[in-house]
Amino acid sequence: MAFRFVRQGLALLLAVTALQVGAQDFPNRAITMVMPYAAGGPGDTITRVFAGAMQKHLGQQIVVDNTAGASGSIGTAKVARARPDGYTLLMIHVSHATNVAMYKGLPYHPVDDFEPIGRATSGPMVIVTRNDFPARNLNEFVAYVKANGPKISLAHAGVGSASHLCGLMMMNALNVKLNEIPYKGTGPALNDLMGGQVDILCDQTSGTVPSVKAGKIKAYASAGKTRLPQLPEVPAISDAGVEGFDINISFGLYAPKGTPKPVLDQLTSALQKSVTDPEVRQRLEAMGISAVPVDQARPEALRAHLKNEIDTLGGLLIKAGVKAN
Length: 325
Prior knowledge:
alpha/beta, D-Maltodextrin-Binding Protein, domain 2, about 325 residues, seven-stranded mixed beta sheet, 2 domains
């Protein structure tokens, strides 16, 4: 029995020593950045923008791995199980906080099983409707939604999605229940909104702003306390006196728990250089998304942001009784 414990302790010591030695010449090979959603969406584009920028500063290729499924939990679990040496990373948004509320028996914990590297982006949300929605301005929109409740259809991109969370927060803030229509992604939901089959969608500017500017849908408010730089003429929902409605979708970068600090420091440095890169900022702004200020691209900021999202958005799902199928 004593020999077994000695052997286990020796194995652990050797593993830690190997990680420390590996950290001294990190990186010396390609890095994998897991995006736990399918290729082609905003999250995939964001991941590829940062992979391209960070590899310039790290001197090694960063390969994007789209491991999708179960609201991002399959790809996230893959990173949680990976060797903690800095060569397998996770780029993920709000689902990292909300999946723990939605899935029973999740095979990882968003805090305990990961090392935060830093926030990467900040994406505001906007409330949009079909073009012939009857309200003429934000105040009329609020009054109409409160008066008609379940008669109004609220589209979203599926349970736990950013648009679903935004819709839940809007219903809570307005104290009203709308008729929720879930879709398999924002694309189909937006198509039906443009076609007039559904009434309202609350989603990220990256998907909605181009359709607003093209005159295919109407925008009533940003889902927060400030106006959107992409739509400066559109008021904030707080301008109508609506409180408790402020949601912003942020992507953050993580490594498996136990990744050596010197490796994390290098990754954070590369991320900070990337968020200040003019080309990165330009590409993100074209999507209606912003790179975070450099002081947010650090572990402490991402750790605090994740805790806040677990408390607020995870709590929102728990309150609504939302569970994954």
